[in-house]
Write a structure and sequence with these properties.
The chain is α/β, with parallel strands linked by helices and 506 residues long. It folds into two domains: 207 residues, Aldolase class I (TIM Barrel, Alpha-Beta Barrel), CATH 3.20.20.70; 256 residues, 3-Layer(aba) Sandwich (UDP-N-acetylmuramoyl-L-alanine:D-glutamate ligase), CATH 3.40.1190. It is 44% helix and 15% strand. The protein has 19 helices and 18 strands. The strands form three sheets. The protein has an eight-stranded parallel beta barrel, surrounded by five helices. The chain is elongated and about 85 Å long. Bound molecules: adenosine-5'-triphosphate, 2-(4-methyl-thiazol-5-yl)-ethanol (TZE) and magnesium ion.
Length: 506
């Protein structure tokens, strides 16, 4: 079961359901198209809520509707709910996140900048804001006047997380709430007290959808969670522009600049690369919005650089002739001020590779070296285990090795692994995102190198190569997660991953 975008979120309260029980209410609301249910029931005992929750969970699961538990993390865990919604007087968000793990949804009610920041840093998936309007029942909220639309709009600007608005929202005012910036609408009475719950749900959802598509405010998707496979990583996207919400703010800003520039003028990326993954590298380059060229003759490569914006040197299938072309082209790129991204594929596996790389590193100025853990360890003069071009073994000191190498060569080092590292010798960014399927497809490292070259080929002011590299690696990983939510076998995953890169660059 997976659901990426919530429009309408029903919060249950049997006492406000005009004699109907919450099972009946939830079933009718699901028939009307709600996206998520929250088990609230403030007046029931924990045992009663548990029993009701068991039934509601089954109903939701069958319908593909998200099931969230209010207030009690113990209950959420006991019911194996999709997530929990906590207020400021419940257990702290950080504790909740630790107990929940990363795959479950954590919603936090927040009313101030500080509360929003704390929720974000604890790893919340959405921020609940309310009560927006006066509510019919005091039980719904302590704030009987409601915070109003202006305050909602102000709070919305303080977070990149999706905002769920609650409190006194109904058919007549929901449009204004969406326009003020709410991404998702949570209601109790508007549905629980309706004469015809199914019809009321349909109507409310339609109004939300039609207002959202008219509204200029960005409508964000909630984190997509894969409930089929709990090991799958989490992600979030912006529905309109496909921009990833979870990109840290500075990287998100950098991506906007890179993306704008890519859409205006596609940089040409010349590749001298291996004959295993060459086609994938060409396609990934194209999907980011750049133009690939993979010309391997000495004269042609050198001449091609006149119109290129970056050069990839990938030694995956190096031989005497290709090495010579790399050296010559590298020198030409340096003369022209074109950034070079080097992938020392399999360095250390053979003496030939190691000598070739030593020569390239000594003679050329490199913008980035991207290698797997073994390759970077070898370059840093440490022990490493390689089998062919694959990194095997444990690398506890990889960060120090990468930093040292970056400082020594005055370049950016990118280490790819389940947790990637980007460093310029001083700053370090770790990216523990992505999906293990990346390791099941030959060439995702080479494609990462080509992707880095695309970003190096974009000239942007105010963003260092370090930030550009970190942005790319982060984005690459998040897009892989997004692909992996949809697909769980390698070949189709590769296709989906390409498409995600394409969509994100539009
Ligand atoms: N277990 C994993 N979980 C998440 N991401 C992973 C995992 N293993 C590898 N990756 C990602 O896969 C990509 C390739 O990394 P890897 O270290 O396998 O490179 P490589 O060995 O140079 O690849 P190749 O030689 O196949 O081109 C990187 O984006 C990395 O983050
Ligand atoms: C498998 C393989 N062999 C040489 S290059 C390459 C692609 C991954 O680096
Ligand atoms: Mg690999």
């Amino acid at each position: 079961m997976k659901k990426s975008n919530w429009d309408l979120y029903l919060v249950t309260e049997a006492e406000l359901s005009r004699g109907r029980d919450s099972i009946e209410v939830v079933k009718a609301a699901i028939a009307g198209g709600i996206d998520a249910v929250q088990l609230r029931e403030k007046n029931m005992s924990l045992r009663e809520r548990f029993k009701l929750g068991q039934q509601l969970k089954k109903i939701c699961q069958k319908a593909g509707v998200i099931f969230i538990v209010n207030d009690r993390i113990d209950l959420a865990l006991a019911l194996e709910a999709d997530g929990v919604h906590l207020g400021q007087s419940d257990l702290p968000a950080l504790t909740a996140r630790q107990l929940l793990g990363s795959d479950q949804i954590l919603g936090i009610s927040a009313h101030t900048r500080e509360e929003i920041a704390a929720a974000e840093s604890a790893g919340a998936d959405y921020i609940g804001i309310g009560a927006i309007f006066p509510t019919k029942s005091k039980k719904l909220t302590e704030n009987n006047n409601g915070i109003g639309l202006k305050k909602l709009a102000e709070l919305k600007k303080m977070t990149q997380l999706p905002v769920v608005a609650i409190g006194g929202i109904n058919e007549s005012n929901v449009g204004s709430v969406i326009k003020a910036g709410a991404d998702t609408i949570a209601v109790i009475s508007a549905l629980t007290r309706a004469d015809d719950i199914k019809q009321a749900s349909q109507k409310l959802k339609n109004t939300i959808l039609s207002t959202s598509s008219d509204s200029s405010s960005a409508k964000f998707n909630l984190k997509e969670k894969n409930f089929k496979n709990e090991t799958k990583a989490e992600l979030a996207i912006n529905m309109q522009h496909n921009t990833l919400l979870e990109l840290p703010t500075n990287l998100a800003d950098c991506w906007q600049i890179l993306k704008n520039s890519l859409s205006k003028n596609s940089p040409l990326i010349q590749h001298l690369t291996n004959n295993v993954t060459i086609n994938d590298c060409a396609n990934v380059t194209l999907n980011w919005g750049a133009l690939p060229v993979m010309t391997s003759g000495e004269r042609d490569s050198v001449e091609m650089l006149e119109s290129a914006s970056a050069l990839v040197l990938n030694i995956g299938s190096i031989d005497k002739r290709s090495f010579k072309v790399m050296l010559k082209s590298g020198k030409k790129a340096n003369q022209l001020g074109i950034p070079i991204v080097l992938d020392p594929v399999g360095v250390g596996a053979t003496e030939y590779r190691t000598c070739a790389i030593q020569k390239l590193i000594t003679e050329l100025d490199l913008a980035i070296i991207k290698g797997n853990q073994a390759e970077i360890s070898i370059l840093a003069g440490q022990q490493a285990e390689l089998k062919g071009v694959e990194s095997i073994g444990e690398y506890q000191h990889i960060e120090e090795a990468a930093k040292k190498l970056a400082a020594q060569l005055r370049t950016i080092i990118v280490v790819s692994a389940a947790e990637d590292i980007i460093t310029d010798g001083i700053q370090v960014q770790r990216v523990k995102r992505g999906d293990q399927l990346l390791g099941q497809v030959v060439g995702t490292g080479c494609m990462l190198t080509s992707s880095l070259a695309v970003m190096m080929g974009v000239k942007v002011k105010n963003n260092s190569n370090f930030i550009k590299a970190a942005t790319l690696v982060y984005l690459y990983s998040l897009l892989a997660e997004k692909a992996a939510v949809k697909i769980d076998t390698p070949a189709k995953f590769k296709q989906e991953f390409f498409d995600q890169i394409f969509l994100c660059s539009q």
